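Subject: TehB/YeaR-like domain-containing protein structure
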Amino acid sequence: MLRPITGYHNDDAGDWVAELSCGHGQHVRHKPPFLLRPWVLTAEGRASMLGTELDCARCDRLDMPGGLVAYKRTPEFDEGTIPGGLRKNHATKPGVWGVIHVLSGQLRYRVEGPAARELLLTPETPGIVAPEVLHHVEPDGPVRFFVEFHTKGA
């Protein structure tokens, strides 16, 4: 998934890491002749690349970044009380990750876009919702679940 660069920091080895809008980091090294990124060597060069989108493989894997904190959760839903908005494509806001917790039964979770997939969620297998990615759910028989929302800690 393409994610814009929102900032930078140095890792323990002194290499530059681009901070992406999703909360993941991605190394942006200048190591000629294999990696040509001379812009990373100066503050002006890095600033000029803010907003540039990089492909985030961790988002493609629905891998939540560390350091997120839960800040809100929905009520519990069952197959008869799932709001219509959850049954049709919708997305979380920038920087907001979701975790779909199934308490009993099964829930079909469909992710749209380039990394499209369908997952069957159970109490043992929660669903991870990446920021700004279209998705929807459908009950697979009787089910009880809720959604918990996470964002960067203060």
